Amino acid sequence: MSMRTLKWLTILLPTLLIGGFEYVRHDFLLDSLSMETGNLYITLLTLLMSFVFATWMFKRIARMNDTLAREQAKRAVYEERERLAEELHDNIAQVLFFLNVQLTKGQISEAREAVSEIDHHLRQVIFNLRTVPEEGAGFAMRLQAWLEEWSGLTGIAVDWLVEPAEENVPPSAEVALFSIVREAFTNIRKHSNADQAWLELARTEDGQRWRLRIADNGLGFDMSDGVAVNRYGLSILNKRAIDLGAELLLRSSPGTGTELILTGPMREGRMS
Questions:
Q1: What's the pLDDT score for residue 8?
Q2: Does pTM top 0.70 for this prediction?
Q3: Is there a contact between 241 and 180 (Cβ–Cβ < 8 Å)?
Q4: pLDDT for the residue numbered 229
Q5: Is the pLDDT of residue 209 over 90?
Q6: What is the separation, in whole angstroms, between the first and last Cα of the chain?
Q7: Does residue 155 come out as left (phi exceeding 0), alpha (psi in the -120 to 50 range) or beta?
């Protein structure tokens, strides 16, 4: 049943119920039913019908919302699979091509480096695939667990600060935020040559927005260099920020590391 049908039922059902009862009472029951008794009956009947209809309608809306949530979850999984497929194609396929060239030239040491890069990248991809939100665990807890494993995998130290209040992140926002965190930390591993990274996730001072900050102490790059900016995956991060309704700021200069700041709106006391 569509929302339009529910709307018309909400409009017409009370009207027909009360109007029909009043018509029958005035035309057929005035001699046997007093005004006070009739008013009592119509009040009780209206209350009963309102309760039955409201209960049925809200159950129907809840089922529709559940269906919509499942569809959104499926879409999020599909988009994540597409992202991983693109990542595999853009990175591993290129390294394999480079490996083939080096083997053809007989440059064994360069080929070994390429194999090591493929191994490292596959480990990162497999790690991302296996990092599934745990039932009953808050968003902050899952994020911290991911950062600990990433740090152990890459050897890059990570300091993080995630406010406990941010454990109320809606599932739709969790998917996008996790994707941004993974993308940013993948870039740190691949391009920064850093040995320290930071992540902060908290509300802004006015409490109306949330703020995600990711930084490293790596090589940094020239923001006017379009090739370097594209290498950092800014277009991907921008797309995910737009999906969140958030603003993205990227700061970097040679030798000073890179800082990413994402700021988004709060809705109903939660991140969204």
A1: 81
A2: no
A3: yes
A4: 61
A5: no
A6: 28
A7: left
- The more confidently predicted of residues 68 and 195 is 195
Q: Identify whether the C-beta of residue 169 lies closer than 8 Å to the C-beta of residue 137.
A: no
CA separation for the pair 192, 257 (Å, rounded): 7
How far is 146 from 133, CA to CA, in rounded Å? Answer: 10
Are residues 245 and 184 in contact, defined by beta-carbon separation less than 8 angstroms? no
Residue with tokens 């050897």: 155
Q: Of the candidates 147, 141, 129, which has an alpha carbon nearest to the alpha carbon of residue 80? A: 129
Contact 171, 148 (CB under 8 A): no
151-159 contacts: CB < 8 A, separation 24 or more?
Answer: 153/123, 153/124, 153/127, 154/189, 155/195, 156/188, 156/189, 156/194, 156/195, 156/196, 156/197, 156/216, 157/195, 157/196, 157/197, 158/196, 158/197, 158/198, 158/199, 159/196, 159/197, 159/198, 159/199
Encode pLDDT of 7-44 as tens digits. Answer: 787 778 777 877 887 788 777 777 777 777 877 887 88
- 1-35 burial, b for 16+ CB within 10 Å, e for fewer? eeeeebeeeeeeeeeebeeebeeebeeeeeeeeee
CA-based radius of gyration for the chain: 29
Q: CA 112 → CA 81, 118, 153, distances in Å?
A: 29, 10, 20
